[in-house]
Write a structure and sequence with these properties.
The complex is a heterodimer of chains A (115) and B (116).
Chain A (H helix, E strand, L loop, with lengths): L2 E3 L4 E5 L4 E3 L2 E3 L5 E8 L6 E7 L7 E2 L2 E6 L4 E6 L8 E9 L6 E3 L3 E6 L1
Chain B lengths: L3 E4 L2 E4 L5 E7 L5 E7 L6 E7 L2 E4 L7 E4 L5 E6 L8 E8 L5 H4 L2 E2 L3 E5 L1
Parallel strand pairs in B: 2-11
Antiparallel strand pairs in B: 1-3, 3-8, 4-5, 4-9, 5-6, 7-8, 9-10, 9-11
Classes of the chains: A mainly beta (115), B mainly beta (116).
């Protein structure tokens, strides 16, 4: 069975500091994709970054980077130079390509940025 | 802008009174999903369509049904809402295939259901 685990229910970070949000996953399938989504208090889910299981390089999108440790089955999100607008829920998600189009989510981490 | 539109944004219903939530997309994505998200929890997949093929999650209650009359529209029907069905309902779309572009979910803004 596939599973996504986020062990940090909440985090507080000072503005301008870097922050790492943890995500571990479990699958026996060799072909999968990992995602991070941001959900502000307005409720809309916003895509941040994607990492494919065969990608050699860690994914980066602006201030976001994904620290992909395949052997450890971890896909941590790193936000550099945090901003007040980064305060939101963050969800890690996974799609296993052999299981049709199903995408599953972790339980989320609530990130709060202090001014 | 191409996007995913959900209506209504807020729905209040009475216990047991049927509700229909709608989702439309202009992205021409062949996969559409319905997720249920309760307060401070992860989105939970209810079902998804791959084109016209319907895929129900094993633990989705029979009370929840869905229709996809064409590529652009998908509906979520809750036949007899209970208090436990109060939640945000998120519609999302994606292209099928492998790689980043094919798998990114584009979400609508959600429909928040209140059951009295």
């Amino acid at each position: 069975a596939q599973k996504i685990t986020q062990t940090q229910p909440g985090m507080f970070v000072q503005e301008k500091e870097a922050v790492t949000l943890d995500c571990t996953y479990d699958t026996s399938d060799p072909s999968y994709g990992l995602f991070w989504y941001k959900q502000p208090s307005s409720g809309e889910m916003i895509f941040l970054i994607y990492q494919g299981s065969y990608d050699q390089q860690n994914a980066t999108e602006g201030r976001y980077s994904l620290n992909f440790q395949k052997a450890r089955k971890s896909a941590n999100l790193v936000i550099s130079a945090s901003q007040l607008g980064d305060s939101a829920m963050y969800f890690c998600a996974m799609r296993v390509y052999s299981s049709a189009s199903k995408i599953i989510f972790g339980s989320g981490t609530r990130l709060s940025i202090r001014p | 802008d191409a996007m995913v539109i959900q209506n209504p944004r807020y729905q209040v219903t009475q216990f047991g009174k049927p509700v229909t939530l709608s989702c439309s997309q202009t992205l021409n994505h062949n996969v559409m999903y319905w997720y249920q998200q309760k307060s401070s929890q992860a989105p939970k997949l209810l079902f998804h369509y791959y084109d016209k093929d319907f895929n129900n999650e094993a633990d989705t209650p029979d009370n929840f049904q869905s229709r996809r009359p064409n590529t652009s529209f998908c509906f979520l029907d809750i036949r007899s809402p209970g208090l436990g069905d109060a939640a945000m309902y998120l519609c999302a779309t994606s292209r099928a295939g492998s790689g980043r572009g094919a798998n990114v979910l584009t979400f609508g803004a959600g429909s928040r259901l209140t059951v009295l």
